[in-house]
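Structure ticket #2291
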Amino acid sequence: MKILILSVTAGGGHFATARAMEDMLKSKGADVKVVDIYKYINYFLYSIIDKGCAFSTSRTPDIFGAVYSYLENRNRPEFDFDALQLVNALCAFRFEGFIEDYGPDAIICTHVFAAQIINELRKRNKISIPTVGIITDYTIHPYWGSVLYIDHIVLASELLVYRAMKRGIGKGRIQTFGIPIHPKFCGKLEKSEARRCLNLPETGKMVLVMLGSLGQGDMFDISRHIRKVDPEIMQLIVCGKNKRLYSKLLKYKEDNRENGLYVYGFVDNVDVMMDAADCIITKPGGMTVSETLAKRLPMIVVDPIPGHEERNTEFLLNNGVCLEVTRTFPLEEAVYYMFENPRRAQAMSEYMAVIGRPRATENLSDFVLELIK
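Resolution: structure written out below.
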């Protein structure tokens, strides 16, 4: 059994989903190859997409959000043909040979751009194997309405079925397995045990702060807001790949003798950190949200990117599983609410158990393997 997983590195979460599927499918005996589709087709195009997405979401988020809203509001997005779809149609020709050489039994796409390329090949009868597209947010990006030839579209939740159908995705193509995450997020350690694993105090209030793999956002400001509420609250701050931020926070900790401040760079034990914390302060990326829901960890959302992250936040708020920091509801008030209203935090955790899909990776892998039997 050969399975080809196609993704795009832009955004991080799409590739993390691809890797989660790869690990699970390999554990079930499949031969799996994960490919960044633009990196294979044209490195220059890959660089433009990768850097362009990072720049637009971090430096010009309002423009990014305006473009997203425009795409959402088009009447018939499945019949619109813009420049990006034209590029992907041309890229399909370059990728056809790769598929012939590898000879997969099924193709999984964890980014809509990859799905557009495979959609073009399906439309031209160049491939006939099963195809699956995974939407890695708690909304439906407008472009997913254009991939009419992808066999199955996987949603983060069954609550998104109506929205998907409005986007032109037929109900018979919809699967509601959830966003695939690493299986380690399925289990849960007792809080005291998790803290022992991290060499942290076993008692006391603790907040986990994660703002993406690149460590975006003003961590100093967040830390100060938390201290305003209660100087005794312990803070686990994960800087990701942002080495400069990591160094600055370590120096700040030493200069100010902040014993309750624990600073980390890029880590691979976020699952244990989630078990150790009482709540998480985070940006609402689809992967982080799915991991947090699986862990049933009360969530405070900050600085959603206009567009998909704003839609993720709406989904979370409407399902009662997060608080959102806004101009009129600052972070220190959100933290205060979280610790002063334990019944609200408990309710969040209970609702998370309802909408979370911790076993999405295994269930979707079984589904794909069944398709090619």
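Closing remark: The chain has a mean pLDDT of 88.
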